[in-house]
Specification:
The protein has 110 residues and is mainly α. It has five helices and no strands. Helix 2 packs antiparallel against helix 3 (38-55). The protein starts with 7 loop residues before the first helix and ends with a helix. 24% of the residues are buried.
Length: 110
């Protein structure tokens, strides 16, 4: 995992960038899901999958892998609203896990 190779401050900055409103990969996937464009969804999901895996966000990576593979097979099984809701929930859960981990790390003796 990337976290083992970077200083804590650098990793924290990458995590902030991943979840920021300016995160292109996350924004691209949300937009593609919203309009239901299969090719665009596949490409955006693939990009986000790589970023999520790099940071160790496995549940989020698994969800976007599911989106990517389903669209690749032409088997979209969710409405755009359902897919966006799943993505938003996964992002929120990942953010909560990151915050909990950061709080535990801050509580450790120096």
């Amino acid at each position: 995992e990337l976290g083992n190779d970077l200083p804590p401050q650098a990793l924290a900055q990458l995590v902030r960038m991943f979840f920021s409103d300016e995160s292109r990969a996350l924004a691209d996937l949300r937009a593609a899901l919203h309009v239901g464009e299969p090719q665009r969804t596949m490409l955006a999901a693939h990009k986000l999958k790589g970023s999520a895996r790099m940071l160790g966000f496995w549940r989020l990576a698994d969800l976007v892998t599911e989106f990517e593979e389903a669209e690749g097979r032409g088997q979209t099984v969710r409405t755009p609203a359902q897919a966006c809701a799943l993505l938003n929930t996964a992002v929120e859960e990942t953010q909560a896990a990151v915050q909990a981990t950061q709080a535990k790390a801050a509580a450790l003796p120096a």
